[in-house]
Every structure is written in structure tokens, then in C-alpha cells.
Amino acid sequence: MSSVNIGILISGGGTNLQSIIDNIKNGNIKGEIKIVISNRKDAYGLIRAERSGIKALYIDRKEFNTEKEYNEKIMEEFEKRNIELVVLAGYLKVLSRGFVEKYKGRIINIHPSLIPSFCGKGCYGEKVHQMVLDYGVKVTGATVHFVDEGTDTGPIILQRAVEVKDKDTVNTLKERVLAVEHELLPEAVKLFCENRLTIEGRKVIIK
Ligand code: GRF
């Protein structure tokens, strides 16, 4: 089975990126990260990529007039490298319609809750865990899904539950969920690279 060319978009620390790097290094994922692109110059994930010999690129949104042009620049970088799978690993910008159309069925996102709870516009990062605590749910978790035109609305690939404890803070809950994310995202990437995911309407069938 040939290796899948992967392009990864980040905005922050890159611990999910690191979990994919590690799973490629240990042979668990039959893929190769060709480029990591960040919309934030200070994203530590760029350093993680460089340390692993992966092309790391900061693309400054201010250099472009529109979101459309910004996304076209990212697509240009991906096309140069024949990217076959796009992974959003803590990427905080919404993709353009053109981007989603071009890569439909080949964009994977990780979200730190059990979608459809605690997701959607403006619901990302630590805000998710604050909403979980404020609501008082007993169970939260992580979701890996394909990206469609909506926000956190694409077909779900994998989910795993995480217990919410009485004395949890945003930080303790975030860490517990992150540990699950670091297993779930590489697993989904592995399944994609092994061509074991089939989208049937809203369902993702794992062969
Ligand atoms: C993760 O919690 C992920 O679920 C969310 O953003 C965070 C990214 O963390 N989308 P990192 O940059 O991968 O460490």
C-alpha cells in the first residue's frame, strides 16, 4: 500500500500534530506529512514540524484581501505536494467553500467534545470545556469527523467518551480529553490511509 500524502493545518501547540508524527514514525500510519501550515506565526506546532524535518509554513492572513484568496494560497501549497488527505489539527479558521469542495471526503477534523454537543460556530478549544462544566454533563469526549460545508457538522468517523469529574477545572478536563484526542485522531488518519473509511450519507462505515 503506497503512502498517503498528508497536509496538516494548525493554529496552536500542535500536540495532535505530534501524535500523528509519532504514529507515522512508528509505522502505525502509512502516510507522509508533506507540509504543516499555520495561520499563526507563534504556533508551537510549526517548531514540532521542523524538528521532525517536515516543511513548516506560516501563511499570514493579512497578506491576502479575502478568505477565499487565503484558502487558495493554502490549496496552492497543497497541490504542489499532491496532498491526498487534509488534517485540521487544532486549526481555528473556517475553510472556504472552494477548499471544502476540492477536498470533500478527504478533510478530517478533531473536536474536543461528543458532537453534536458543545460544537458549532465559536465553540472551540477551552471554550468547549467551559461549556461542558457550566452545563454539568457527566460525560464529554472527543470526536473525529470529516469536514463538510458546516462547522463541526460532517460525518463522524470516531468518538470516545471521557468522564467529567466533580472537581474538574477547564484544565484538568482539557488534559483528560486531549489524551483521548491523541489516540483518536491518529486512529482515524490510519484508517483513512488504509482506505478503510466509506461515507454513506451521514454515516462513516469502517471496513
Ligand atoms: C485540541 O483540543 C483540539 O481538539 C482542538 O484544538 C486543540 C488543539 O490542540 N481543535 P493542539 O494544538 O493539537 O495541542
Report what the structure shows:
By secondary structure, the protein is an alpha/beta fold. The protein has a single domain (4-206), classed as Formyl transferase, N-terminal domain (Rossmann fold). Helices cover 35% and strands 25% of the residues. It has six helices and nine strands. It has helices at residues 15-25, 44-51, 67-80, 97-102, 126-135, 170-193; strands at 4-10, 31-38, 56-58, 85-88, 107-111, 139-146, 156-163, 197-200, 203-206. The strands form two sheets. The protein has a seven-stranded mixed sheet with strand order 3-2-1-4-5-6-7, sandwiched between helices. Helix 1 (15-25) packs parallel to helix 6 (170-193) and helix 5 packs across helix 6. It is globular and about 50 Å long. The mean pLDDT is 98. It binds 5-O-phosphono-beta-D-ribofuranosylamine (GRF).
Entry summary:
The chain contains 6 helices and 9 strands; from the N terminus they run βαβαβαβαβαββαββ.
Defining key terms:
207 residues, alpha/beta, Rossmann fold, seven-stranded mixed β-sheet, two-stranded antiparallel sheet, 6 helices, 35% helix, 25% strand, binds 5-O-phosphono-beta-D-ribofuranosylamine
**pLDDT averaged over residues:** 98
Q: H/E element string? A: EHEHEHEHEHEEHEE
Low-confidence region ranges: none
Number of helices: 6
Bound molecules: 5-O-phosphono-beta-D-ribofuranosylamine
The first-to-last residue Cα distance is 16 Å
CATH topology: Rossmann fold
Number of domains: 1
Fourth CATH level, the homologous superfamily:
Formyl transferase, N-terminal domain
Q: Output the radius of gyration.
A: 16 Å
CATH A-level architecture: 3-Layer(aba) Sandwich
The secondary structure category is alpha/beta
Q: Provide the β-strand percentage band.
A: 15-25%
Overall 3D form: globular
